[in-house]
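Ticket #443: bound-state structure for inosinic acid.
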Amino acid sequence: MANVIVVGAQFGDEGKAKVTDLLAKNADLVVRYQGGCNAGHTVVVNGETYKFHLIPSGILYPKSICILGPGMVIDPKALVNEIKSLEDRGHNLNGLKISGSAHVTLPYHLMIDAAEEDSRGDMKIGTTKRGIGPTYADKCARTGIRMEDILDKNVFNNKLAWIVPRKNVILERLYELTPLSVEAILEEYYELGQKLKKYVCDTSSVIFNSVNDRKNILFEGAQGTLLDLDHGSYPYVTSSSPSAGGACVGAGIGPTIIDRVIGVAKAYMTRVGEGTFPTEQFGEVGENLRQTGKAWAEVGVTTGRPRRCGWFDCVLGRYSVRINGLDCLAITKLDVLDEFDTIKVCVAYKDKTTNKIYEDLPSIGSQFQQMEPVYESFSGWNKSTANVTSFKDLPENARKYLNFLSQKLEIPIVIVSVGPKRDQTIVIEDPIHGPKRVLTKAL
Ligand code: IMP
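RESOLUTION: The complex was predicted; output attached.
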């Protein structure tokens, strides 16, 4: 048995669903621990494309139990639609379990997210407008409404009766929007709650019992390390903790049960929304990366926005190894680089004001904004990798490129993905049972 966390090692959209889908095959439980329907995970199985926003992609394996943990924020409307669309495609949702402690995204969260974003002007974050920030803000302010609350009409009514007039002050006076009615929200969301009731339980005890039964548990992170509320490029972050530490709090388990942390990174880099992105490419290179995404299509799964594209950034990679305590790395979308004559990698940063060079990020705060990438160039391989099934059969330059990333990040690359389909995956080492990463620097 092994309990494994899979995290995004970049700005989100690393192709985590492809990796969790692969690992979920042998998992008894797949647990999401943070975020909400801002996430968009795409999996291609037998030629069919599935897009997940709330439900872990492990649901495609009929035997696995899929948990939406207490650290998540859940839009019940989106969840009911996602359940229905999976059922319509013949999938069985018997293994779905939702924490009663997960917070609920309600109409005022969606309205405030959109209105706040629109009012920010140059300071906008580029949120997905799925109400994520305002739902987590209510959770922290202890004014949130949880899944268990919407199942009891009296409790739900009492909570709404207090909060909605307060939200209406913001909606009407600050944003000149139409106020909301307690009754309308109560009716609609109580009904949605009733549809979800059979899935709601104490998910922490389900996980704990599974640990005791020596089951395999996969903790599936959404978004990425650089979008982490505490460790990301604040304020251009999401409002939850996608990094590995977040898995314990967000799932309701202790850190002692975690065996392994696997990071997922693209062979290049993308970002959706605003915020510093040192290796971003604006001209032909950026457009080629975006367009060569072909089957992958570099647009956000949730919002359809084009992703900003750039070269792999080892400084951020090393930061991600540190923040998450990564044991190993899965590299996705290597095939997107197949036709590039030259591939660049950021190996260090130069501070634009002091000219000082950093191999490790000095700070993710304001200093991050004044960093300029220092690149090393690699010759491309100009050959399709889409049907390669083993590391040794990759073109020599592709192997050199991957070995370089592994050396720079001081971490083994155990999986390489060369296309969106399940079988377009090269497993170099057992990602779950390999050795724990040892510190490579001597004392
Ligand atoms: P929010 O999570 O909707 O509040 O958005 C905050 C920031 O995180 C924005 O820059 C979004 O584009 C980004 N973001 C949120 N979810 C994802 C995701 O699943 N992939 C990539 N970026 C995301």
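RESOLUTION NOTES: The CA atoms of residues 143 and 163 lie 7 Å apart.
TICKET STATUS: resolved
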